[in-house]
Amino acid sequence: MTSDFFEKLAHLGRNGESFVTATVVSRRAPVSSHLGDRAIIYADGRVEGFVGGSCSREIVRKQALEVLKLGRPRLVLIRPDASEQTLQHAAQAESVVVPMTCASEGAVDVYLEPHTPARVLLVVGFTPVAQAVARLGTLLEYSVMRVVTAQEQRDLEPVSCVALPDLKSYLETLTGEARSSLAAVVASQGHYDEPALEALLGAEVGAEVGFVALLASRKRAVTVRELLELQGTPLEQVAKIRNPAGLDIGAKTPAEVAVSILAEIIGARAGSNSAPMFTHSSHYDPVQHKAQVLETRADVSSSQTARPGFALSPVDGEEIEISSALHFADFEGQTYYFTCANCKRRFLKDPQKFLEPLEPAGEV
């Protein structure tokens, strides 16, 4: 029986499920439980095992669900002479005395211990800040997952890692509970922030992702949000982006920025009132954006052609290797490739502006 119990615990842990173990640590007859009796209480309230009769069982079920919510263990002392007032005063204590509602004159003490999977900390980018966030997250016992390009994987120290194109598939493998508690820090600093955010905020999984922060300036965050919206990301999902990432503690170095970011994640999970660096906007202001970002038309010769396996950006005429391209978009059945996310954003705002033949040089 003991081996089956621990095998079940191991199985639940591997599956990333939350549950509470209940163990009888003391008893006074007459009660039906025995010293060492155990049970597992699942997040949905289901009880598997035995720690007492119907009265004790319901008390343990109720207390276990509260323990799971608080994330702290508790010793439950079930007594025939306890009062409801005693229970109310001890609701937040490490031990509580609960009145026995049945006719039994016995007493039983049950130790409840919550088990929750390590929270996933997803760190996007191959930058000093991303590295510092990942290392600090490991010290804080998060399950850290790095997200980089396939080329960057070769230079990444041995850690759990997923390639950027596989991010969406990885998110879909997580249980709903793991996704809702996931914290993501997007810190590629302009290299591939947008593709990562698109995967994180997609309608299929984004509605359940708990925390998404973007390491970027206010100005660039505006353009990032705009591109996501142009690509069809729902506004309510775009509004979830926290920017800049981290609490305002005057951080300067990558390690200090990482501390500020992890502090915000901890505060968000605990329901802290700590304020981020500034309140993130739920929607960009188009007028302000036009004043911030200067739109210029690329001087691209219409006679340019790309080598096999490459494509020319319609925005700036740069040659891009198709197999490793990070920024691309479909328009009227044609796929176009871009050197950066901002070029893609400019194209999607007005595709015809970049697809119309340019006037020959010298014409007016």
Describe this structure in words.
- The protein is of the alpha/beta class and 364 residues long.
- It has three domains: 2-115, no CATH class; 120-284, Rossmann fold (3-Layer(aba) Sandwich), CATH 3.40.50; 294-355, no CATH class.
- The chain is 35% helix and 21% strand.
- The protein is built from 14 helices and 16 strands.
- The strands form four sheets. Strands 3-2-1-6-4-5 form a six-stranded mixed sheet, sandwiched between helices. The chain has a six-stranded parallel sheet with strand order 9-8-7-10-11-12, with helices on both faces.
- The radius of gyration is 28 Å and the shape is elongated.
Write the layout of secondary structure elements.
Blueprint: H1 2-14, E1 19-28, E2 38-42, E3 47-49, H2 54-70, E4 74-79, H3 84-89, E5 95-99, E6 107-115, E7 120-124, H4 128-139, E8 143-148, H5 150-153, E9 161-163, H6 167-173, H7 176-181, E10 183-186, H8 193-200, E11 211-214, H9 218-230, H10 235-238, E12 241-242, H11 254-270, H12 286-292, E13 310-312, E14 319-321, E15 327-331, E16 334-338, H13 341-349, H14 351-355
Parallel strand pairs: 4-5, 7-8, 7-10, 8-9, 10-11, 11-12
Antiparallel strand pairs: 1-2, 1-6, 2-3, 4-6, 13-14, 15-16
Helix pairs in contact: 4-11, 9-13
